[in-house]
Every structure is written in structure tokens, then in C-alpha cells.
Design goal:
It is built from 6 helices and 3 strands, in the order E-H-H-E-E-H-H-H-H. The chain is mainly alpha-helical. A hairpin with a 3-residue loop joins strand 2 and strand 3. InterPro entries: DNA-bd_dom_put_sf (IPR009061), MerR-type_HTH_dom (IPR000551), MerR_fam (IPR047057).
Length: 123
């Protein structure tokens, strides 16, 4: 939590941005993509994130950065549709390196299936 503030305190966009390690414009972008994320706005459009907004922003950040979800996937996840994570290409390279004696045909087939699934998720 931000230094000097209690657990239930409202956070400004700058404080939340620093806590999550993302720029402020990313938080404003998330507000346009996730209708559940609605901070209070005061005079001059100053944003104040309630504890539930902070928890939601943390969940979005976790899903996007650590769980491999896309924006669309997180939207489905938050809407209750589940959403499937997208496996980054770097992770697939690690899996290929650890996979013992897989025939090139099987590997090509699995790669094709992965690409089809990724295309279906983005459609």
C-alpha cells in the first residue's frame, strides 16, 4: 500500500500508478476498456480510486502482466466469461526446449493448433 495511507484510503491516480508500476495513461485507458473500473472524479477531473477500484486494478494488472491475458481476455474474465490466457512466444520456446523427443510432425501440428486458438481468441 502507499506509504502513510491506511488500507481503506482512497488513492489518487499517481499513487495507484506508482503502486502498480504502470503509467497513469494506462490506468485511464483501462477505465475506457473495463466498465467496472470507475474511480470517483472530483473537481478538475481528479480521480480517486476507492479500495474496490484498487483491488480491481490490481486484478487487471495481474491478469495482463503475469497471467498472459489480453485486454479482451480480461474483459471476458471480469464479465464472467472466463477468458483464456495467451501463452507468450517466449514461454513456448521454453516448453519446446524442455519437451523430450517430440517428432517434428507432432510439434508442427501443435503449433498450428496454438496459432488457430490464438486467432480465435483475438477474433
Amino acid at each position: 500500500m502507499t506509504d502513510g495511507k491506511s488500507e481503506g484510503a482512497f488513492l489518487t491516480i499517481g499513487e495507484l500508478s506508482a503502486e502498480l508500476g504502470v503509467p497513469q495513461h494506462i490506468l485511464r485507458y483501462w477505465e475506457t476498456r473495463f466498465p467496472q473500473l470507475r474511480p470517483l472524479t472530483r473537481a478538475g477531473n481528479r480521480r480517486y480510486y476507492r479500495p474496490e477500484d484498487v483491488a480491481l486494478a490490481r486484478r487487471i494488472h495481474q491478469a495482463l502482466t503475469n497471467d498472459g491475458f489480453t485486454i479482451k481476455g480480461v474483459q471476458k474474465l471480469l464479465a464472467g466469461g472466463g477468458g483464456a490466457p495467451v501463452v507468450p512466444a517466449a514461454k513456448l520456446t521454453e516448453v519446446k526446449a524442455k519437451t523430450p523427443s517430440m517428432s517434428p510432425d507432432v510439434l508442427a501440428s501443435l503449433t498450428k493448433i496454438r496459432d488457430q486458438l490464438a486467432a480465435a481468441l483475438t477474433a
